[in-house]
Amino acid sequence: MKVLAIDTSSMSATCAIMDDDKLLVEYTLNHKLTHSQKIMPIIKEAFDSCGLKPEDIDIFAVAKGPGSFTGLRIGVATINGLAQATNKKVVGVSTLDALAFNLPYCGGIIVPVMDARRDRVFTGIYKWTGGNLHIIKEQTVLEVKELIDILIERPEKIVFAGDGTLVYKDAFSEALGEKAIFAPRSVNMARASSVAELAMAKAIEGKTESFFELVPDYLRESQAQREYNEKHCMTGDDNE
Q1: Range of the domain at 13
Q2: Within 13 Å and on the Cβ side, how many CA atoms surround 196?
Q3: Can you give the pTM of this predicted structure?
C-alpha cells in the first residue's frame, strides 16, 4: 500500500509518500508562501523524487483539522482532487492526532496546542501506552487558562507540541514549572509522515472515505461567521 499525505493546517506545508515498509519521501516548507502556491509543487517534487505518478498511490490522506480555515480548505480540496482524478479512496486525519504522533513513546502525556486566536488553543491530551497512542482527552478548543487548570491537576510530565507553544510557552512554563517540556523544533510542527502513518493504519482497518465525503473539521466557526453571528445577535436580526 502506498499513501500520499499532506498537511496544510498551519503555516508549514508538508507532503510525504509512505509504503508498507518505509517512508519514501517527505518534504516540509515552513516559510511565508501561501499554501495555494507551495503545496502542489511540493507534491510534484515528491512524485518526481520517487519516480511515481498519482496513479501509483493507493490512499490519499490529509490533515483535516483543526487549524487554519484557509489551509484546511486547500489541503482537503487538493487531496479530494487527486483522489477524484485517480478514483482512489481518501483518509482524513486529525491534525492534533498527527502532532501527538510526532513524539513516539515519550513518557508523560503529550499535549498538542495550535493557536486558535483570542487566547484560545485547539488541543487534546494523549499518552503512549503499550506501544500505542491513546487519546486521554478528545480534541477541543479551550481558553489557555482552562487548559492550564486541567494540566495543573496532572501528576505527569507534560510534553507540548505545535505552533501554540510559540505563542503561549511562557504561560505554560510559569504555571506548570518543571512539568512543562517543549518538543524540539524538528517535531514541533506538522509532519506529513505522521499523517501518512496514521492514515495507513486507518485504511488497513477499512476506515476510508470517498472524495465526496471528506470535509475539513474546523472545530469552531470561522471568524467571519462569528462576526456575523455577533452582529445579528446585537441587532436582534435572526433572518427569520
Answers
A1: 3-95+190-219
A2: 25
A3: 0.90
140 burial type by CB count under 10 A (0-12 exposed, 13-18 middle, 19+ buried)? middle
Residue 96 has pLDDT above 90, yes or no: yes
pLDDT, position 231: 57
Reduced to 3 states (helix: H, G, I; strand: E, B; else coil), residue 57 is coil
Distance CA 48, CA 53 (A): 8
Domains contained in the chain, number = 2
Please report where in the chains the cell 519516480 appears, as a residue: 51
The 3-state DSSP class for residue 122 equals strand
Average pLDDT on 225-229 reads 48
Look at the block and give the residue holding cell 488497513: 204
Residue 10 has pLDDT above 90, yes or no: yes
Per the domain annotation, does 145 fall within a domain? yes
Q: Is there a single domain that holds both residue 177 and residue 198?
A: no
